[in-house]
Amino acid sequence: MRCLRNTIVGAVCIYVLLGMICTFIYLIIEELFPGSLAGLQYDTWQQNFDSVFYYSMVTLTTLGYGDITPQQPLAQFFAYAEAVVGIFYTTVLVASLIGMQLASYSQKIIQRADRTSGDQDCGPLQTAAEVRTRRLGQWLPWSWRFCLPASRVAHARPRPVRRSRRDPMVL
């Protein structure tokens, strides 16, 4: 859980850093081409920083309120690019967090299956890894079996093994 919390905090920091980088790009564009962002008062960059940072975060999150709009082609290009980066960053972040959570969950299930598995179920043609894979397939919902690495789930249907009184997991 701590690793997930640190990952989320780090991802938020990177997201704000992207907004700050785009803020400085917009400030440079505004200094080189005055009037490129409509809705700003022409002041020094220090006085415009909070307004441009606001615009950058609104663009990064693709809200687009419209109170500050890019007028020059260069400012419009960076606004489009920032919106695309914001969408892709959020998409990749959510997919990565879900993948990490599924990997953690499947690792817990593998550890649980390893604790309860023993060599008493292994027939002459089955190894302990095959029995563990069969048991893992019994513990997971059907749709999650495809999220595991191919080395963990060797086949879709588990092979029947002989029943054991000591192991409650064998059906």
Overview of the structural elements:
The chain is mostly helical. Helix content is 60%, strand content 2%. The chain has 4 helices and 2 strands. The chain has helices spanning 2-32, 45-60, 73-116, 128-139; strands at 37-38, 69-70. Strands 1-2 form a two-stranded antiparallel sheet. Helix 1 (2-32) crosses helix 2, helix 1 packs antiparallel against helix 3 and helix 3 (73-116) packs across helix 4. It is elongated, with a radius of gyration of 27 Å. The two termini are 33 Å apart.
Overall body shape: elongated
Beta percentage is under 5%
Order of helices and strands: HEHEHH
Got a strand count? 2
Radius of gyration: 27 Å
Helical coverage, percent range = 55-70%
Helix tally equals 4
The order of strands across the largest sheet is 1-2
Detail the poorly predicted runs: none
Q: What structural category characterises the helix and strand content?
A: mainly alpha
Average pLDDT score: 77
How far apart are the first and last residues' alpha carbons, in Å?
Answer: 33 Å
User: What about the largest sheet?
Assistant: 2 strands, antiparallel
Question: What would the keywords be for this entry?
Answer:
mainly alpha; 2% strand; 171 residues; elongated
What's a quick, concise take on this entry?
The protein has 171 residues and is an all-alpha fold.
Strand and helix map with partners:
Blueprint: H1 2-32, E1 37-38, H2 45-60, E2 69-70, H3 73-116, H4 128-139
Antiparallel strand pairs: 1-2
Helix pairs in contact: 1-2, 1-3, 3-4
